[in-house]
Amino acid sequence: MTQQTTRRDKEDEHWMLQALLHAEKAALIGEIPVGAVLIDQNGLLAAAGNSPISHQDPTAHAEILVMRSAAERLRNYRLPGTTLYVTLEPCIMCMGAMVHARIDRLVYGAADPKTGAAASVYAIGTDGCLNHRIEISRGILAEQCSALLKTFFKARRKESKLRT
After folding, report:
1. N or C end of the chain: which has fewer CB within 10 A?
2. What is the dihedral of CA 108, 21, 50, 37, to 10 degrees?
3. Do residues 128 and 163 lie in contact, with contact meaning Cβ atoms separated by under 8 Å?
4. Active site (catalytic) residues
5. Does 78 score more than 90 pLDDT?
6. Helical H segments across 29-141, by residue range
7. With bands split at pLDDT 50, 70 and 90, how would you rate the model's confidence at 163?
8. Which of helix, strand or coil describes residue 32?
9. How high is the pLDDT of residue 132?
10. Could you tell me which of 12, 3, 1 has the C-alpha nearest to residue 142?
11. pTM for the whole thing?
């Protein structure tokens, strides 16, 4: 492992921990605990947790919210030179938005074997079918990201059983 690889791994873990904080905040308000941060060479551009329920917006995934915020901040709908960190492998909608925004790199924690569109079910951004390619790193702090989701859904199932 080179010094540059080690530095990148540490940076990936740092930003994924930030995404996890936003996922935890989302869980506290009853949202599926997914968090995202978007950075560029100068640092943090935007951070958010999932909020489709609280925003009453089916597109209010953490990834979409950070892209919207960063685009507004930079006054540009294109976000080249950026890296998006997210705790769960993105869905089709989010991957499509990343392609359109020209995100350079995606780093995610837990895989989503049912709807993951970066590698698990689809390979949007790396399959060569679109006009932009995204570098993808996966499995960063995957155990912590996965544990947060499992704990959330276990509690939700328990609540559901208590109501019936």
Report:
1. C
2. -50
3. no
4. 63
5. yes
6. 52-55, 62-74, 92-101
7. low
8. coil
9. 95
10. 12
11. 0.94
